[in-house]
Design goal:
The complex is a heterodimer of chains A (about 280) and B (about 290). Chain A has about 280 residues and is an all-alpha fold. Chain A contains 11 helices and no strands. Helix content of chain A is about 75%, strand content about 0%. The longest helix of chain A is centred in the C-terminal third of the chain and has 42 residues, at about 235-275. In chain B, helix 11 runs antiparallel to helix 12. The chains are: A mainly alpha (about 280), B mainly alpha (about 290).
């Protein structure tokens, strides 16, 4: 048999170049955020943390960050609930309109976000609903709940329906089956869906742009300052917002690693309990 | 003894589909119908209930608004094709060759994707502007004066590639991870050339992922606004921006609605065609 996994150093190099390409804008933002003037000129001579201090003291940034955070928290909770049930309908149950449902929920994902926001804004206007962070949250949900459903659906596919049946046979009530079997088995997918929902909402720009009325989200505030009235406060806040995303992703990786280790330990200890001679 | 199947799949299916279904009916289907309705009202009016009129669509073709749609479709198609060509080797490496490195790439790219798109685009702006991070040192240290690529039409394609190539990468990667190594090895053992393995095994078996990748990259690009606004500084007006202008600045909702309808018709027909070709259970339920 031929070796399919040769050295391939050029592929490593090429992928590395792509990563560097992706990092360039972040490096630029980080440099500029430590600048001393609102005039961008490289190579930079002086560095300061002046604009970080300014960002911390700015009331507008506090307000817009709180708005973004509020929206993201609500979007996370609702996406987890809706995504959990959506995933069951998507992957677990055999029902008549399942394939229609599967395709229907993909449509919003493929839909241009800015246009979706404008359409929603027209709709809220027609219904005479004042636009605020709540309507922006609804706009986020249209795009994010389908994605959360897809993420939660992946473990739902490997769901063993016999476990539910067995529990019913042993006399469990419907609620017990739900609490003891269905929910724990799908929980990892639901948690992952929630994390993604938070991050997608926190960083979203196009959906809130036309739907948040008097309130302003952080990405939107940054965009308005990028196009007019630029100061290095903008990259400083961008760097901090990116930092929050990195923290959340770090927590996500840590949790998934801990769950894996815990499961391994538990399966080993079960093994010790039931068949001590087979344990490693 | 209790009934063996107390969960009725059909009933449970409807019930569990209800929350998402209702949410999308109220916040996706209904707004689209309103937009559709508005597109047939008189220009510059704000009431949906009036005699239907085709004036908006006439105006789109008469005054050349359709050009921004064509620009968006064309630039998006080019960006999508470039993304596929450039991302395929990386997707292949991640699926079949890299081990730990694939995880590193994923972590870095995922982290970047969660930073607001306009912020990242602004980072490119800072890099490419005159005296920016890439242009400034070249000028200062090497005396090289390269005109800034900003404000040109083609920088939009660059921005679209930057923003959306990760989606192409992951969809293609997902497709390629469905190609069994045994089949590839067997074909090579039987004397198939690398090109034959590519065209007769890799591409056909990875097709569901590739189709979704093209669709997603194209759809995201068509609706993109940040790269045109921040990098090209409106050297061409793309569709999303034309729509925004109609709604916000000109306060001509019917015209904006008609533009949305045309955009949606194209994106939706591409999406339905592509999604009809693939089996979603096969993609998501795949077990390795």
């Amino acid at each position: 048999m031929r070796n399919l996994n040769g050295k391939h150093w050029y592929l490593y190099g090429y992928a590395g170049l792509y990563l560097i390409f992706n990092l360039i804008p972040f490096i630029a933002l980080a440099f500029v955020s430590f600048g001393t003037s609102s005039f961008v000129l490289f190579p930079m001579e002086e560095f300061s943390t002046e604009f970080y201090t300014q960002a911390f003291q700015s009331g507008t940034i506090h307000t817009t960050a709180m708005t973004s955070f509020k929206i993201a928290i609500f979007v996370t909770i609702i996406s987890m609930i809706v995504g959990f049930f959506g995933a069951l309908a998507f992957a677990r149950y055999r029902w008549r309109f399942r394939s229609v449902f599967q395709k229907f929920i993909l449509l919003p994902i493929f839909f241009p976000q800015a246009v979706l926001g404008l359409a929603l804004s027209l709709w809220f206007n027609t219904l005479n609903i004042d636009q605020s962070w709540q309507t922006a949250m609804l706009a986020h949900l249209v795009w994010i709940t389908p994605i959360a459903t897809l993420i939660a659906a992946i473990p739902a596919y490997s769901f063993d329906a016999n476990l539910e049946d067995a529990a019913f046979d042993l006399g469990a009530t419907r609620f017990q089956v739900f609490r003891e079997i269905t929910l724990p088995l799908l929980w990892p997918g639901v948690v992952a869906a929630g994390m993604f929902a938070f991050l997608l909402s926190w960083g979203n720009f196009a959906l809130s742009l036309y739907t948040d009325g008097v309130d302003q989200t952080l990405p939107q505030y940054l965009f308005s300052r990028m196009t007019q009235g630029y100061t290095p406060v903008v990259p400083a806040v961008a760097v901090m917002a990116a930092g929050l995303s990195i923290l959340v992703i770090g927590a996500m990786l840590l949790i998934s690693w801990m769950v894996r280790v815990y499961r391994q330990r538990r399966s080993v200890s079960n093994l010790v309990e039931f068949a001590p001679e087979a344990a490693p | 003894m209790k009934n063996n199947h107390p969960v009725d799949d059909r009933k449970a299916g409807y019930l569990s589909a209800a929350p998402l279904g209702i949410l999308l009916l109220l916040l996706f289907v209904a707004p689209m119908l309103v937009v559709f309705g508005f597109s047939f009202t008189e220009p510059n009016t704000f009431r949906i209930l009036q005699n239907p009129s085709f004036k908006n669509y006439q105006e789109i073709f008469q005054y050349g608004y359709y050009q921004s749609l064509l620009w968006s479709f064309g630039l998006s198609l080019i960006a999508t094709a470039i993304s596929f060509a450039l991302m395929y080797p990386i997707a292949f490496g991640m699926a079949k060759i890299f081990k730990r490195f694939a995880l590193i790439i994923t972590v870095i790219i995922v982290i970047m994707l969660f930073v607001a798109e306009d912020t990242r685009m602004f980072g490119w702006d800072l890099s490419l502007m005159r005296g920016g991070m890439l242009m400034g040192p070249l000028q200062e240290w090497f005396g090289l004066t390269i005109p800034t690529p900003l404000n040109h039409t083609w920088i939009i394609v660059f921005g679209l590639f930057y923003s959306y190539s990760p989606f192409m990468l992951y969809c293609t990667l997902y497709g390629l991870s469905m190609v069994p190594d045994e089949i590839r090895a067997a074909a090579r053992d039987l004397g198939a050339s690398r090109a034959r393995v590519l065209f007769e095994i890799d591409l056909p078996l990875a097709m569901p992922g590739i189709v979704v990748g093209w669709l997603l990259t194209f759809a995201l690009s068509v609706g993109a606004i940040a790269s045109a606004k921040l990098l090209a500084r409106q050297s061409v007006i793309v569709a999303a921006q034309e729509i925004e202008t109609a709604f916000n600045y000109s306060q001509n909702w019917p015209l904006g609605a008609a533009l949305v309808v045309l955009l949606v018709i194209v994106v939706a027909s591409v999406a339905f065609y592509a999604l009809g070709k693939i089996d979603l259970d096969g993609i998501l339920g795949v077990k390795k």
